[in-house]
Predict the 3D structure of the following.
Amino acid sequence: MKRIIPLFVATLTSFFVLAGLIWPVSLGGYLNIVLDWAIIVGAMALLVAIAHLFLAQWRKIARGNRSSFYSLVFVIVFLLSLGGGLVMGVDDPEYRLWISSIQKPLEVSLLGLAAVVMAGAGVQFYRTRGWSPLTVAFGVSALVFLVIDLGFLQVLNSPPVNAIIKTLQMLPLIGARGLLIGMSFGALIVALKALTGEGVGND
Amino acid sequence: MSADILLGLVGLILTLMVFSYIFGDNLFFRVALTILAAVSAGYTAAVLITKVIIPLLIHPLGATRGAALLWMVFPLLLAVLVGLMIFPRLSKLGKIPLSFLVGVFAALTIFGVVRGTLTPQLLAVINRFSPELLQNAGLPDWARIVWAVMVLLGVIAVLLAYQHYTHKRKADEAHASLLDGVGSIGQIFVGITLGATFVMIFSTALVALISRVVWIKDFLAGLL
Amino acid sequence: MIALSFNDIIAVAIAILTILALFVSWLVSRSKVRSEMRAIEAVSAVEAFQHEAAEKGKRLLFGLGDGLTPQAASVNALAGLGIWRETSARAVFNDQPAQAITGEGSLALLSQMVLRGVYQDAVAVELFKTEQAQLGGLSAAAGAAGLLPEVNQPSNAAVILIGNHSPIASLAANLAGRKNLPLAAISDTLTAQSAFLISAPLSTQGEDYYAAQTAFKLQSKAGLQLRALDILRALTVLALLIGAVLKLTGVIP
């Protein structure tokens, strides 16, 4: 019985949403209502997950763990960000400026750091991965597209070179298409399995 | 000190804290990560409360009367059941709203994948064989013919590269080695795609890195 | 009567064939046809990591990525929950239970729900703690920011990144490398697959993502899914070849 209710809810919801997508004229209005509900439930789920995260940090402080200093930083910054948004309003220009002044440098720097890390990993690529059709093609392709991306060859303004570049740029589309088709079938099967209530616990 | 300079200093310090990882994992890097996780969680929570929960759930409850109110009962019930998951003992109550959510996303995936991805991708391969496309002024356009065949065989090779099961019978050994050969060609196409994708993400990350370095230089020049 | 376009007919055919493929793969799995699954190093490593964790009295760390967001309306993230369930079930009474970090709210609650089910099955629901499956951070960078401090914990035996990750997660692979922690990265996005190919010692490409659930050979359901994929692959190859001929001969407009 415990398994049947989630199964029933997932299946019924899926069939209704699919029907709404297939017949938008007759069911589109109801579909929008159900999607609004999904947004509410998703938002609530996110709030609960954030609450769990906050409580976990709070408990670490209470226990005086080795990492409780980081938890203290988390709790203070979290409360300031949340409180600021609730008191000043999330559309307040000053609040947004503060948030973006903290978030943007951190996010962009992390992405920049990823470039350093990937460049470092690239040097040891063949040592860690060995030689195979995949790794050789990957290495050659990365090198070729890096050169093309630099734009030096395009400066030559030579029609044969430009034709070669154009052909090379189309090559990744073949693999991408094959990968996309395969991945899509996989996603389709996962979605069909989800209709049977799988992924929503097993008790 | 003006707010601009203060915010600039905050940005500078946070940037340096992140880049300190280059010299090894350290306290400053971890603090920067903690700040990012906390700010994003706090800001998202504030947005969800003020932009989703209050306008989509709380306000309509107060403003709706009669039968229309019944439409609000279901999302309210689902939201309350999810909300109760905050207590570990009551977390099993969340199974119904989460099943609802999974159901919605499963349907969106099925429709999106079948109608929006698979059909156009398969047709894009087949449509290259349109007789009008393969001719130029009544004569065969060999460049396009070669390309259409290459796309078809390339996509097939990529698909076969991920064959999961092979039969164990001895008679199938030749078949298995043929599959391996085609699979290797498929791996080459996959490698080319991943290599090009890597350059794309690496370029984006590199631009991010350069933009931070330039920003630091400009900010320091402005201070001096 | 609803008029279906050519694209609609293909879409309906794909949906029906997928359901049929699942049915046929179920029939094949019940027959005595002996078949061998292609070994995928990153997937086989998961079971080895599990044993290593149990032997060392340490934990396995999972980065489940994000998913189930309106932006990426995909349930691919659920594929990672199967392996999370199996690993957690094997580590219920270990010194250190497995730990999961997610980058999205619903997925965090689903992973908790799965974990709770595992403890309930083991008649040890009192040991269930929400901290064992929690949110790390929102957005690609914040998700990585939430994951990295957990990679840093000395109690880790190995790290498994599975699900929808961004290339920034390559920082987690780098940190694990610096800590000499084994790591397997199994992602469903092309960008993450290419980033992990270069930065992670073990990773999957393409639809090998869906093979992750076969890491523990007990999961026959996962095998069913892969057999269905194989059937669909064969049908797609046939459809492409026949479609190309029909197009060339003008049978398809």
Notes: The mean pLDDT of chain A is 89. The radius of gyration of chain A is 26 Å. Helices of chain A lie at 4-22, 24-63, 68-88, 93-123, 125-129, 133-150, 152-155, 159-194.
